[in-house]
Fold these 4 entries.
Entry 1:
Amino acid sequence: MDYETVSAEAFGASLRGIGLNILTRDVQAMSGRLVQVFGMTAHRVSADFAIMRYGAEVFQLHSDGTYGANPLLGLLPENPPRGAGVEIRLYDTDPDEAFDKADAAGFTVLQPPTDKPHGLRECYLLCPDGYAWVPSRPL
């Protein structure tokens, strides 16, 4: 699928399994951070929407304005953090490399790269919208 030219209808109809849709105040800034720190690919980036690719996985970024008739909009806090309690785990990203890029991209380091007893080396990076991004690799 060509994510740069696919229609909204065709893209929506192609989605399967579980989906991730992240609400952000600034789609362009968030997509740039994800590309810079985690090596993701951003498609169709606009002020309202972006298709993000992480390996073979696809997810979406949406601005608040695109949620005008969505029942979730009324639950969003006025002040960050918005994503409290959400961990987005990136199992194919080197946590040390992401840690090195995080500050320059506006992330807050909650935990530097650490070897964990569950067999992963991971770090916790909080984006300005309050989502915890957790790059991880097997030990």
Note: The CA atoms of residues 113 and 123 lie 4 Å apart.
Entry 2:
Amino acid sequence: MVWMAVQKYSTMFIQFISGIILARLLTPYDYGCIGMLAIFMVLADVVIDGGFGSALIQKKRPTQEDYSTIFFWNMFVAIVLYAILFVSAPAIARFYNIPLLSKVLRVQGVVLFTYSFNIVQHNQLRKQLRFKVLSIISVVSAIISLGVTIIMAYKGFGVWALVAQHILLSAIPSVAYWFVVKWRPILVFSWNSFKELFGFGFYMFLTNLLNQFSGQLQGLLIGKFYNASTMGYYSKAQRTESLASQSISTVMTQVTFPLYAEMQDNKKAMANAIKRITMTLSYFSFPLLFILLLLAKPMFILLYSERWLHSVPYFQVLCIAGLAGCLQAVNLQSISAIGKSKTMFIWTVIKRCVGIGAVVLGLVFFGMKGLLAGVVFNYWFSYFINISLVSKHIGYKWYQQIKDLLPVGLVSLAIAAICYAIGYFLHLEMYTEGAIVLAVYLILYIGWSVVFKPEAYKYFLSVIPNKFKFLRKRKQSTK
């Protein structure tokens, strides 16, 4: 988990710096063009994976035939999908009424080949828990791609700078994995292996496909019914919010899925792990999202300039959705780890149908405000379904999970209300007010933690002596 934290926070910092610099070199229109194509690229990536990546991790002893079969299948699917994207690119450009998107999609589509080329090696490293290697490759790739992107943006390449960034972020790890991982495919395609992995992976594939389509749907609707600039504002708000809500959860879920798969026969241990992880996540993520919601305006102006001020209300609403989003994967991955991929798929269909309906109806009747309300409803509805599945199949009851999260949730909300009132009545200069609000929130939250020592706070502290050896040794030497 420490190495995944190094990877996530290093790349997050690089993305953060990238966002600040590129926001001044590129326009909302440039970001909007890439955002409009995101749904097609994301869905294509899901189809290439086909759920086989998770299936390889979930299977305890994959064979050489298993790996080679999935490798050649992924390459075949990548070729077919790129051909479809290449032919349909002009129609997609006409759908958005932006001719440039045709060329952009055809060039950006090459990432399908790089992704399919390294998916087996990537999942081998995850299964072996070699997160140090994954972290180093990820950070180096992010640094190189950032440098190239900034140079291209400065030279006036516009949207093509973002295209280059996406391609490099996929191509560099693809090359690195082949040097690091000694595995090489053999010329074999086993239908028995394919059918076995497909039995689990198929439902994982359908689940991921529905989840990604639901997550990208709002971008498709905004791009169609509004304009590229509006899409750019929303895209910037969504990316900024995801850096906060997904930063901690991504670190944990990258590690927890292979570990869940190893302890899949011990439901009591899994229930305890889910409890510790969700409470630790909530202790850090909840106050972080409330702070960002309160400081959204000065933060966006300071980081991105006043050009991106229209992103602020979108960002604030997405922070409310992020409170549920940061906890979803922890619960969802535990269900897939015990082999309940079909059950997860059935409930995903229900969740996404309800969520998509909420987003579409919200847009039709209330415009952008309705769409954003639908996004919030979608996230929270999905969260309650996920904890219900965990309650049934693993034994960590849904009401117990809510009870465990209530202290952090209520205290975080109450402190946010106090800080909002302070800002509302003081009428100070924007940055001064922001600094005071931040200081008050941190003092009250840390003070509550130290005085009352809630269970989530204890779990959060327990990570330090368990993971950092030098601290543990120092602690032992003082006894």
Note: Residues 465-479 have pLDDT under 50 and may be disordered.
Entry 3:
Amino acid sequence: MADPMRIRAQVAGDKATVRVLMSHEMETGQRKDSAGKVIPAWHIQDVTAQHNGKTVMTAQWGPAVSKNPFMQFVVKGAKAGDKISVSWVDNRGDKRTDEATVS
């Protein structure tokens, strides 16, 4: 399983800005190793964010997203103490879910 995501969620007024740093190699499937063999594709395909259990954002990614991707989005109506969870699934079926509390 991949390393934990770093999630920060900070309230400003009636919105929370959520910043997520994901740890993933994000291989495109187009590079070759030192022996000249193609390195198989390995990248995050689906990302979902939830605010107190309700889905607030979904994304479908492909091989063009960089290694260890960073994502930022805003959640309206969030308050300090609310829970934000972010999940991803990659093309190998690996999954990761992490949670943070809005501050």
Note: Strands lie at 6-12, 15-21, 44-51, 54-60, 70-76, 83-90, 95-101.
Entry 4:
Amino acid sequence: MFATASHSLNAYAKVGIETGVDSADPHALVMMLFDGALLALADARFHMGEKNIAGKGQSISKAIMIIESGLKISLDVKAGGVLAGRLAALYSYMCDRLLMANLQNSVEIIAEVAGLLSELRGAWAGIKPAANYDGAPMRLSENVRA
């Protein structure tokens, strides 16, 4: 009975996330990526404390995937110029550090990356979601919606 209830809760959570993604604007989608990466890093820390090597690896891999295939690929380098280039480099740095955290079983490195992601998330949250400075609707790289 517990397995059925757990399965139902997981299915409900998945539907909630999918519904949120389907109805989210580009700003909200990026917020979801930050939240997902931070949640994966919190899970990795938990698994480290439990000595669950497989769980730790899966959680770190998930965070790397979100950063690399979500946050980094969503950058519009043409429109973002130097700032987008620097963010891309920072995202690459974070992924490299997470690989080291996995190899060295380092909670400190995970905390470092989580801190960087939290700061970026806070900055992104402070951006007015409805429009850019020129009044045009916000847009992400075409890679986000593909």
Note: Confidence is low (pLDDT under 50) at residues 1-13, 131-138.
